[in-house]
Design brief:
single chain, mainly alpha, Receptor-associated Protein, extended
Length: about 400
């Protein structure tokens, strides 16, 4: 497939510019004719920079696409026409072009899932597997609707995580910046005024002055550079993935952080597993695909290893019970779902429970963290002001005594 830029006239005689995707220039001309456009200029568009980041599609956009496709397909519109219709409405244009590529592939006789699999940078394995499950069951529209709900929940959770972290990080960065500026520029200038006095400075003033001298010392700055290089060495030698794996393992041992990570990751895992099983995807394949939704590499690896025993005839609850990080409540609910024969419903309920718990925990943590940062900033500023005032008070007391 190639991209073509065009300039054409519509039925009103007005000029229209844009991009389209086709196998060759002849097919591009036919596409313009199908749109009732008279081509003035048509040439192949070669993208100079091809970064996967710019080719990816966010969960919120993918949810919207799934919802629109579901509505059109449930109304009896063929898949290729539904793709063309959505591609005309979706923004930005690059996503529309991507959908037109998929549509052309479908028109060539390929299934929708097969066409989507050719664009892994935009449509991940989970999405393609759900579409394939919908095609196999003959309920593509229904599966697309459920996929849209799942992606919408996933997008909302990602936004909540980002929103929960952005403000405290900005606040913490500003606090560190203000304290550093005070220590580097304000404290030395003010305290230097007392250096000619024949009196010993208070301990707090000397401590802050020492800290200020350390921060402005070139040796300390060289040390920071060397420390950064030492951090880079293990990343280069052992590999980013191995270092991340070890770091993720450590995170799961920190009590409060552990709960946040597990609630978020296990909610996505159980939700996707439930959806795949409803689409009649085999349990082993569903486990492999669902594990991709887990962000913590250590937890993901542990679940993959443990779930491999399911292929040997072991129950899902017993297999996942081997992963120490997974809370007993999760294992118990999965076990109850297997015994009752309603595993998919239980997984869906478990996902909703974990998501609700994550949201409540996030709100509580942020409500506590924000004032905590402000208090810490206030204490540091108060110490700096006190370190400056103490010599003045000491000098005033000395003068009054004389």
């Amino acid at each position: 497939m190639a991209s073509f830029s065009y300039k054409a006239l519509d039925h009103k005689g007005e000029t229209e510019k844009g991009f389209l995707v086709a196998e060759n220039i002849d097919e591009a001309q036919n596409e313009l004719k199908n749109r009732k456009l008279i081509p003035i200029k048509l040439k192949e568009y070669k993208q100079r920079i091809n970064l996967s980041f710019f080719s990816s599609i966010s969960n919120s956009k993918l949810s919207l696409i799934s919802r629109q496709l579901s509505t059109l397909i449930n109304s009896g519109i063929p898949v290729d026409q539904a793709l063309d219709s959505v591609s005309e409405q979706i923004e930005p244009p690059r996503i529309g072009n991507k959908l037109r590529q998929v549509s052309l592939k479908v028109k060539s006789g390929y299934k929708l899932s097969e066409s989507l699999e050719e664009h892994p940078e935009s449509f991940d394995r989970l999405f393609c597997s759900l579409i394939k499950a919908g095609e196999s069951s003959g309920e593509l529209g229904k599966i697309l609707e459920k996929t849209s709900d799942f992606l919408e929940k996933r997008a909302n959770m990602s936004q909540e995580i980002t929103g929960a972290l952005v403000y405290p990080l900005i606040l913490f960065t500003v606090a560190i910046g203000i304290i550093s500026l005070l220590l580097v520029y304000v404290v030395p200038d003010v305290v230097s005024q007392f250096s000619n006095l024949d009196r010993e400075l208070p301990l707090l003033t000397k401590s802050l002055l020492f800290l200020s001298q350390v921060l402005t010392n070139p040796i300390f700055q060289i040390f920071i550079v060397l420390f950064c290089l030492l951090l880079y060495v293990p990343l280069k030698y052992f590999g980013t993935q191995k270092v991340k794996f070890k770091f993720d393992e450590i995170l799961l041992k920190i009590p409060v952080v552990k709960n946040f990570l597990l609630d978020a990751d296990l909610s996505r895992f159980t939700s996707s597993l439930s959806l795949l099983r409803l689409g009649n995807v085999s349990i082993l394949n569903a486990l492999k695909i669902s594990s991709d939704t887990i962000s913590n590499s250590y937890l993901r690896s542990s679940i993959i290893k443990a779930s491999s025993r399911v292929g040997e005839g072991e129950s899902l609850a017993k297999s996942l019970g081997r992963v120490n990080a997974i809370p007993p409540l999760v294992i118990q609910m999965i076990q109850n779902g297997e015994k009752s024969g309603k595993l998919e419903d239980m997984l869906s309920k478990l996902s909703d429970y974990l998501e609700t718990r994550f949201r409540n925990s996030t709100k509580i943590a942020m409500n506590l963290f924000e004032p905590l940062v402000i208090i810490i900033l206030g204490v540091f500023v108060a110490l700096i002001v006190l370190a400056i005032l103490l010599p003045l008070i000491q000098l005033n007391t000395f003068t009054t005594t004389i």
